[in-house]
Structure formats: structure tokens, C-alpha cells
């Protein structure tokens, strides 16, 4: 048996070593025993007339053997997405079934996955380099003993990807990626599982951290690092800043030791050669490991140089960031502003809902590397367990490349896309589930040339129309409520006590305080960023600028209403001039607007709600300033002046802002200014061509915020005093200081994300303001019958909680409307089910529903019985009263600040007659051609102080003694009747020469007047008498 075995081996060896069997082979007919022609006859080349072309059936596929997908028969220029995934035998048919089919052979699965290459839209044109590579076609390199694998994408697979390359790597449970480094920087996102990363920098400092799903790390070129998976294993995505990067060219610790003489290695580490005799003879790359300690401190071996400081560490726990929500999806951005070590790398993790799209855009400073990771449990929002979420979906992307070329590609999970700078592109979700993808740029920030305005994606025309109409509508209630101040002498939220009661109104005072404080923060940020933009943030940064603006505003607010009014009277002039100059300097670029799709209902209503939210809150403080006007001032003129003063500048400046916003992404210097200092940075960039003068104008624009901020601070101090009765005794200067400190602190923090915070802030305040307006206006018109006597007849009623309404009906109307307002809200942090389809309808619903509820007779009928039957209200009232009593006692020693008391400075309820006590006999003639210290002189004084240019020769007629004023008034065309109004002249023929007085309050049956020289000679007096005592002369401006 042994001999036979040996002979067999020798035979095989001889056969293998012998030359191949040789035989004759005919050059035409081949070797003997074969059939057919191995090579054709040379006679078949060229013209062969004898060749007969046989008749064959058509190569077109019959229409009953294939199906058209939805949209495939439509005009190809529409560019509809064609889903071939479920149709039978898909064909490249466009417009109709008469176009050519593909009988094959072909890879049908590829055609289904790449429908936009198989059936391109009519807009595709010219030649564009391939922008897609699926990781599924990359070689999968496996580690040792099943420890993991990696797939590489670089310029070999995707030639246009010159600046970046990617690696998809998997580590099995407890496996290691051995200590290594690269000549390229490494940016990584953990897709699933968790791992422990460690590194050492050039100074010998250590770094170690635990990374989980959604977290990021970054290792600069040359930094040695290692990765170990935890027991669940992990998968992560690596992006390198070199398109030629290859995982095969990594510097490995094992290879360093292998390729260095053992004696040198031993000498380097100051140990014996024996230590390295068992060193690996080949690279480990990815290899199995033992479980890492759960407690990171047990593995954190700090070297002599210590740990890397936190600001220089290599990890960022991105998973903790909540995404920014926009219509159609979410976005999370990470760039060197928040992750400084990753210089030159910016990333955006984006989700797009079915039917939505990542808008048309391009990048001005970097190529875009984009990936659609394979489905994996990546909990982007951290609101549900990790296994609930999967990165999946499908999309298409059209790359536009000048001049006139474009190509559309289809993507699904596991694909990589690459768009060179500055090619324009979009991403459309073409599937039925949420699309998730990652954008990576080699840029210091996400610099995107967005199509549309900066926030809502509206074109200039659409944005301007929304601004115009929503401003014109939402300013109406503000202008109307402003007319109440002169007639009542009360601040707006003091008037609201007659609806909400003395205690419930505090809720709306708090909301108004939050609103005013928010606007103060916005003004401080804009002004501070303007000052910062002038010096490029070197001499004065945004923080210093905010402090300067806030302190100057505090100083102006200290001066009181008269100085504030004087300042506001002229401060708008330099601001307007500065804006005109800025528009002139940058106007030549404003035409460079991006082209957008027609506005959707959602966009219009959501942006309109934001515009309305800017205007409606004025209603809560309209009377705060108009209370200084004369009670008889024509309401229509007050409303008209208020309406024009608010609406005109708002529309003009908002439209200008929309134009600037639409052009900003297309002008690099403006975009850079926007990223650095938001709106102020853009204005500074617009003025940059003007040199030093432009910087001066920017400073003027920055300081123009002082007017807004100081006036707002004035109202804030009044609101503080209205909040609780005992706060009357605290001087308003204290509140000014407190609110300034709050504004500075919050503004410095909020400035880092100005437009995000502004949008969030404005989006909320419109809801409460609309509900407040609906209730207060309805109560005034419906229940009070527009009679201001209901507020003023009893001088003490405004501050008497026991006689004011309890406010249950008003609170019920305000809170009751929330049931429908919430589903209609469209905010970044919450979108109601109705708003998902319609856009933001919150403020409209709040306004209408609160007004409707306030008209509910049942609520008002039952309100008087609440105090009797609701023990809860009694306890609340008792507790609240007790607290106020204690606080009032504590502050009783302080002087009272009458800032919120009902007042009318130009029509004061006090003896301010300049000749009081200075008359002896007739006292001489006053400036109005009357004898001083007479009732006629006193009334003439009051009328002139109220703005009526009244004299004894008013309107060309001699008015004479008081007993002839009624006839003189009729002759002059001035109305005389028996209906008193505040500010009208009360006239009687009683006495030798008659008597005139001024009406200060009108009740149901009686009237209160101010007079001189009636009950006591040459003395001021005040009395309440029946209305029938006088005739009433209505002298107007």
C-alpha cells in the first residue's frame, strides 16, 4: 500500500512537470474533434453583397408586457419622480408608451434603484460627473477573527470626490481598532452602539471618553488614537479631509514595531529585547479584545503630562442636542463655533419628512460630502428608546453645474453623494418614510446660499405681501385701544382690571413683562452686534456692545416721560437717514434675489403669524403713552396717528429686511457678516464700501436701538408697579436697574443664536396678545357699550378689588380658547395636528375664540355667584389679601410712586391755574383776552393747555361773558347740546354773568366739573352735579 501511494505521487509529479500535450490546430476549424468556426473568415470584412438580412420580429417590447409607473406618462419636463420599485418589467419610457423600450440584457435591479438615470427628467442636460457611490459596491475588508470590518470610499470609487473620503467601519463586541494615526484629519459619527475612544496629543497629554449613538469625535492629522467597542458592538462613519485617503495607508502601532529593529525599539522604551519577542508579526488593524471596564476612571491612566483640557478634547456629545425643527423636517449643525478642535469641518444631520425636500442651495466655500447611512438604531431626537428609530429613506438629488449642465441621481440607505463647490443642488424625499442624511463640509461653518429669505423660504414678493397685509390687519386693534388712554386716564393693563379683575390681571401683566423684556433683549443684541461689527469684534465685541446699549437706554429711561418723549421725537431722524444710506450703499445688490417655488399656505400663515406677533403686543401698552393726551382729543386722529406710526415704518423696514435676507446668501461679504453679527453684520457689510463713513453710520444704527429700548424700559417699570399694589411704593428707578441687569445677562447668551431665539420668542407672544385683545375689546364694545364712564365714574373703583369684576368670565374666555389654539400652533418645538396641514393659525384662532367666549352671557351671568359658592376663590382671595397687607406694611415707610394711577397730565385734576391767588380785583387781562381769576379765564387756560387755540375771539366771534358762550358757540359752528363729554365746556346762564367750567368725568346721571370763581371768590373748585345743570359746548382741536 505504501509503495502504491509512492508511485501515485511520482506519477502526478511527472504529469505536472511534463510539457502540455501537443497537437495540430487548423487556424480556421480549430483542433481535431471540434466543430464550428473558432475565428471568422477574413472574407466577411466590409462589403459582402451576398449577405441576406433575415426578417425578424420587432425588438420593441409589447405594451402588455410592461407597466408604467405613476407619473411616467406625464411631460418629462415636469421632472416628476418615477418610482419603478413595484412595476412589472420597468422600461425607460417617457411621455407615452411610444418611446423606445429596453429589451435587454440589463441589470433590472440597478434600473429600479436609479430611476432618474434610467428615465431622466427633461431638465437634465449636458455632462456632470458621477455624484453617487454606494458603500455596497466597496470592498469589505475584514479584521482578525471576525472582530469587525471596514468599507472605503475615496477618489478611486468616486473621482469627483477630491477633497473628502469616507469609511464605514464596524467593530464586534469588545473589539479594538488598534492604536493608529493618519496623515489626514478624521471626523466621525457613531451610527449605532457605543465605544471608548482614547488618544494622546503631541504634548503627551491623554484623552479618553465614552461615545454613544449620535456622538462625534475628531482627531487631527498625526494624533494617535484607538477605539474599543463595548459589549453591544458599534458602527461608525469616518470622514477624512483627503479624497485619496485609503484605510490601507493607515499608520499602525504594530507595523511601526515590526518595521523597526527590535534593539532600537527596546532601547527606545528602555527595556530588554525579550519584551518584544512576542510582538505581533503582522498588523492587527481590527482585533478581538477583552471587555473594557464599565467605570471609565478605572481605565483612565493619566501620564506625566496630565489630561487634555476640556476645550481641546476630541469628542462632542452631539446626541444631547435637540434638533432645530422647521416645516418638513429637522436639522442639527455642528461646526468649529461649538466644536473648536474640529477646525475646517462642519456637519449637518438632517431629516426630511415624506413629500418634503432640502431646499435648493449651494455652498460657497466647500465641497459637500453627503451620506445616507444604512438603517441603524440612531436615536436622533432622544425621545424614544434607540430601537424605535432607523436611519432610512430614499431621495433624489439634481446637481446643477455651470454652464447649463445638470444630472439627477437617486440615493438610498448606504449611499454616498458628493457635490463640488459651488454646484447647486437639492434633496427631495421620494419615499414614504423619514429621510435622514449627513452633510459634511470642509468649512468653518455651514455657509449655504439658500434660495429664499433666511428663515421661511419665501421670495421677496411673497414675503413683502405677507408683511403688508398681516401688518395692516394686526395694527387695527392696537390703534383702536390707543384711543382709550385719553378718555380714561388709565394705563392699558389698569383698564384690563375692569375685565379680568384686580388679581387675575396679574397673569397678563407677567406675560406683558416677559414680552417687553424679550423685545429689550432683541434691541440690545441688535445694537450691541452693530457696535461689534464696526470693529470686527476686536475692540468692541458683541458682549461689550450689548452692555453699552443697555446702560445708555437705562440712563434715558431715568429721565422720565417728558425727556423720553423729547428724545423719541427726534431720535428716529438719524436712524432713518442711516438706513437710507445703508440701502443706498448696498442697493445695487438687492436685485440679486434667489428664485424660489411659489409660497405655500403653511409658509404664508406661519410667517404671517410671526409678523402679527410683532404688532399685537403693542395693544397691552397702547394707553401707557396716550393717557398723556387730552381727553377730548379726536379718537379718529389718535387712532390714525397710531396706526400710521406703527404700520408705515414696520412695513417699509420689514420689506427692506426681506430684500436683504433674500440677497444675503448670494453675496459672500453679507453672508459672512450675517454669520458673525446677524442682521447688524449684514448692515455693516452693506456699508463697508463707504469706509470710515460707513462705520460711522453703522454706529448710528447701533445707537438707534437706545430709543426703542429706553421706551420699553419705561413701560416695564409701570408694569412692575401694576403687578402688585405694594409695588407702588418702590420707585421705578429700582425696576429699571433690575431689568437692565436681566436684559444684559440674557442678551449676551441669546446673541449666539440670535435669529433662532428671535423666531422662537416672536412665535409665542402673538398667542397671548391675541387672546387678551379679543377679551378686552369685546368687553368694552359688547358689555360697556363703548361708554368710558364705566371706567371713570367712580374714581376709586380702579383699585378696589372687592368692587371690580372677579374676572372668571374673562379668564374662562382666555384659557378656553387654548383648546383649539394649541392644535393650530406651528413652532419649532411643537407643531399641532391642524397646523401641520395649514401652517400657524394660533393667533387668529386665539383672537376669534376669546372674543366669542367673552360674549357668552352665561359666563357673565354666573360670575357674581362664584364668590359665594366657590370656597377656593375665597381662600385664594384671603391668602392674597393677607400677603399684600403684610407687604404693604413692610413698605409703608416708602414714598408712593403714582406712576400707574389714573391720570391725564394735560388735563390734570388739580389746581394748576397760573393766576390762582394772584388776582386783586380784576387782576388784569390774560393772554386770551379775559379778566384773570374769572371762570372764563380758567376755562380758556385749560382749553389752550389741551391744544385748543381758544381766545375771546374764537373762530371770528366775540364770546364775551359766560352767559353768552352758548350763543357764541352756535354762531361759530361749535356744537352745543345736553350730552356731556370729558373735556367739554359746561355752561350755564345762572348768576349775573353766567358760569363756565370744564367736564372731567361723566357718569350715568351726574357729571364732575372743575371750575374757578364759583362757590368761593377767586378760588379753584371741583364738584359733581346732575347732568341737567349745564349745557355742554364741545370745543375741539
TrEMBL record:
Q: Which domain of life is it from?
A: Eukaryota
Sites where the protein binds Mn(2+) 1 = 180, 182, 186, 225
Q: Give the region (Disordered) as residue ranges.
A: 23-65, 86-107
Molecular functions per Gene Ontology: metal ion binding; transmembrane transporter activity
- Protein topology in the membrane: Multi-pass membrane protein
Task: List compositional bias (Polar residues) regions by residue number.
Answer: 91-101
| Protein family according to the UniProt entry | Belongs to the purine-cytosine permease (2.A.39) family.
Please identify the protein, giving its name as recorded: Peptidase C51 domain-containing protein
Q: Which organism is it from?
A: Pseudopithomyces chartarum
Amino acid at each position: 500500500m505504501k509503495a502504491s501511494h509512492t508511485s501515485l505521487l511520482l506519477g502526478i509529479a511527472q504529469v505536472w512537470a511534463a510539457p502540455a500535450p501537443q497537437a495540430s490546430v487548423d487556424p480556421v476549424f480549430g483542433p481535431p474533434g471540434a466543430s464550428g468556426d473558432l475565428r471568422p473568415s477574413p472574407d466577411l470584412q466590409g462589403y459582402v453583397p451576398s449577405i441576406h438580412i433575415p426578417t425578424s420580429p420587432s425588438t420593441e417590447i409589447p405594451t402588455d408586457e410592461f407597466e408604467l409607473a405613476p407619473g411616467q406618462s406625464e411631460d418629462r419636463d415636469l421632472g416628476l419622480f418615477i418610482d419603478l420599485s413595484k412595476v412589472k418589467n420597468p422600461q425607460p419610457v417617457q411621455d407615452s408608451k411610444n418611446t423606445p423600450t429596453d429589451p435587454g440584457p440589463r441589470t433590472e435591479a440597478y434600473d429600479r434603484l436609479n430611476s432618474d438615470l434610467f428615465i431622466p427628467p427633461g431638465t437634465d442636460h449636458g455632462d456632470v460627473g458621477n455624484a453617487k457611490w454606494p458603500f455596497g459596491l466597496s470592498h469589505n475588508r475584514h479584521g482578525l477573527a471576525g472582530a469587525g470590518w471596514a468599507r472605503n470610499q475615496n477618489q478611486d470609487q468616486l473621482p469627483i470626490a477630491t477633497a473628502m473620503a469616507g469609511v464605514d467601519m464596524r467593530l464586534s463586541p469588545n473589539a479594538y481598532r488598534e492604536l493608529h494615526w493618519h496623515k489626514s484629519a478624521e471626523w466621525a459619527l457613531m451610527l449605532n452602539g457605543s465605544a471608548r475612544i482614547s488618544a494622546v496629543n503631541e504634548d503627551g497629554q491623554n484623552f479618553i471618553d465614552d461615545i454613544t449613538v449620535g456622538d462625534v469625535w475628531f482627531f487631527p492629522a498625526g494624533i494617535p488614537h484607538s477605539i474599543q467597542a463595548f459589549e453591544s458592538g458599534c458602527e461608525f462613519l469616518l470622514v477624512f479631509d483627503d479624497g485619496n485617503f485609503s484605510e490601507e495607508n493607515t499608520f499602525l502601532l504594530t507595523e511601526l514595531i515590526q518595521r523597526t529593529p527590535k534593539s532600537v525599539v527596546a532601547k527606545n522604551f528602555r527595556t530588554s529585547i525579550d519584551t518584544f519577542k512576542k510582538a505581533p508579526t503582522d498588523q492587527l488593524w481590527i482585533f478581538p479584545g477583552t471587555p473594557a471596564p464599565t467605570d471609565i476612571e478605572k481605565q483612565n491612566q493619566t501620564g506625566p503630562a496630565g489630561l487634555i483640557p476640556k476645550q481641546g478634547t476630541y469628542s462632542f456629545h452631539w446626541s444631547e442636542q435637540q434638533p432645530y425643527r422647521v416645516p418638513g423636517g429637522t436639522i442639527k449643525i455642528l461646526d468649529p463655533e461649538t466644536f473648536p478642535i474640529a477646525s475646517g469641518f462642519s456637519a449637518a444631520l438632517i431629516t426630511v419628512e415624506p413629500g418634503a425636500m432640502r431646499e435648493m442651495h449651494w455652498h460657497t466655500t466647500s465641497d459637500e460630502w453627503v451620506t445616507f447611512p444604512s438603517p441603524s438604531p440612531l436615536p436622533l431626537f432622544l425621545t424614544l428608546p434607540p430601537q424605535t428609530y432607523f436611519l432610512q429613506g430614499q431621495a433624489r438629488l439634481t446637481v446643477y453645474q455651470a454652464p447649463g449642465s445638470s444630472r439627477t441621481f437617486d440615493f438610498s440607505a448606504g449611499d454616498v453623494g458628493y457635490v463640488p463647490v459651488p454646484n447647486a443642488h437639492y434633496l427631495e424625499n421620494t419615499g414614504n418614510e423619514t429621510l435622514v442624511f449627513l452633510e459634511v463640509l470642509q468649512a468653518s461653518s455651514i455657509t449655504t446660499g439658500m434660495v429664499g429669505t433666511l428663515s421661511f423660504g419665501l421670495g421677496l414678493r411673497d414675503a413683502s405681501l405677507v408683511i403688508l397685509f398681516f401688518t395692516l390687519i394686526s395694527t387695527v386693534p392696537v390703534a383702536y385701544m390707543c384711543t382709550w388712554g385719553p378718555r380714561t386716564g388709565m394705563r392699558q393693563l389698569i383698564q384690563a382690571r375692569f375685565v379680568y379683575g384686580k388679581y387675575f390681571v396679574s397673569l397678563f401683566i407677567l406675560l406683558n413683562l416677559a414680552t417687553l423684556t424679550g423685545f429689550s433683549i432683541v434691541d440690545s443684541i441688535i445694537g450691541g452686534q452693530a457696535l461689534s461689527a464696526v470693529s470686527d469684534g476686536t475692540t468692541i465685541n458683541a458682549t461689550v456692545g450689548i452692555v453699552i446699549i443697555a446702560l445708555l437706554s437705562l440712563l434715558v429711561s431715568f429721565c422720565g416721560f417728558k425727556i423720553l418723549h423729547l428724545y423719541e421725537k427726534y431720535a428716529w431722524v438719524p436712524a432713518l437717514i442711516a438706513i437710507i444710506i445703508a440701502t443706498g450703499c448696498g442697493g445695487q445688490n438687492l436685485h440679486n434675489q434667489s428664485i424660489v417655488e411659489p409660497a405655500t399656505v403653511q409658509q404664508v400663515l406661519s410667517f404671517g403669524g410671526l409678523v402679527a406677533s410683532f404688532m399685537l403686543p403693542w395693544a397691552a401698552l397702547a394707553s401707557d403713552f396716550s393717557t398723556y393726551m387730552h381727553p377730548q382729543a379726536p379718537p379718529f386722529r389718535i387712532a390714525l396717528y397710531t396706526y400710521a406710526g406703527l404700520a408705515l415704518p414696520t412695513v417699509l423696514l420689514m420689506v427692506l429686511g426681506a430684500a436683504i435676507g433674500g440677497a444675503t446668501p448670494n453675496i459672500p461679504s453679507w453672508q459672512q457678516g450675517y454669520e458673525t453679527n446677524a442682521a447688524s453684520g449684514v448692515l455693516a457689510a452693506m456699508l463697508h464700501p463707504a469706509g470710515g463713513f460707513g462705520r460711522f453710520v453703522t454706529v448710528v444704527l447701533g445707537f438707534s436701538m437706545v430709543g426703542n429700548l429706553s421706551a420699553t424700559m419705561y413701560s416695564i417699570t409701570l408694569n412692575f408697579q401694576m403687578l402688585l399694589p405694594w409695588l407702588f411704593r418702590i420707585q421705578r428707578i429700582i425696576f429699571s436697574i433690575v431689568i437692565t441687569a436681566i436684559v444684559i445677562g440674557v442678551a449676551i447668551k441669546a446673541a449666539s443664536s440670535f435669529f433662532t431665539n428671535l423666531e422662537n420668542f416672536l412665535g409665542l407672544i402673538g398667542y397671548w396678545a391675541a387672546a387678551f385683545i379679543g377679551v378686552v375689546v369685546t368687553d368694552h364694545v359688547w358689555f360697556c357699550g363703548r361708554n368710558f364712564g364705566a371706567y371713570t365714574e367712580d374714581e376709586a373703583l380702579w383699585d378696589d378689588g372687592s368692587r371690580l369684576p372677579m374676572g372668571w368670565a374673562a379668564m374662562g374666555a382666555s384659557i378656553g380658547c387654548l383648546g383649539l389654539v394649541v392644535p393650530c400652533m406651528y413652532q419649532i418645538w411643537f407643531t399641532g395636528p391642524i397646523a401641520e396641514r395649514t401652517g400657524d393659525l394660533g393667533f387668529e384662532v386665539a383672537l376669534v375664540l376669546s372674543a366669542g367666549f367673552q360674549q357668552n352671557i352665561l359666563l357673565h351671568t354666573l360670575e357674581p355667584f362664584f364668590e359665594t359658592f366657590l370656597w377656593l376663590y375665597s381662600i385664594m382671595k384671603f391668602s392674597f389679601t393677607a400677603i399684600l397687607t403684610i407687604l404693604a406694611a413692610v413698605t409703608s415707610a416708602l414714598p408712593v410712586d403714582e406712576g400707574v394711577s389714573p391720570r391725564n397730565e394735560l388735563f390734570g385734576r388739580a389746581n394748576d391755574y397760573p393766576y390762582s391767588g394772584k388776582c386783586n380785583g380784576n387782576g388784569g387781562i390774560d393772554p386770551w383776552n379775559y379778566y384773570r381769576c374769572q371762570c372764563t379765564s380758567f376755562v380758556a387756560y385749560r382749553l389752550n393747555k389741551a391744544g385748543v387755540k381758544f381766545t375771546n375771539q374764537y373762530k371770528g366771534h366775540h364770546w364775551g361773558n359766560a352767559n353768552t358762550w352758548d350763543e357764541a358757540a352756535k354762531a361759530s359752528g361749535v356744537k352745543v347740546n345736553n350730552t356731556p363729554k370729558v373735556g367739554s365746556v359746561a355752561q350755564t346762564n345762572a348768576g349775573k354773568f353766567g358760569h363756565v367750567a370744564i367736564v372731567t368725568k361723566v357718569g350715568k346721571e351726574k357729571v364732575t366739573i372743575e371750575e374757578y370763581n364759583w362757590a368761593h371768590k377767586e378760588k379753584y373748585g371741583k364738584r359733581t352735579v346732575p347732568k341737567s345743570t349745564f349745557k355742554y359746548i364741545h370745543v375741539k382741536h
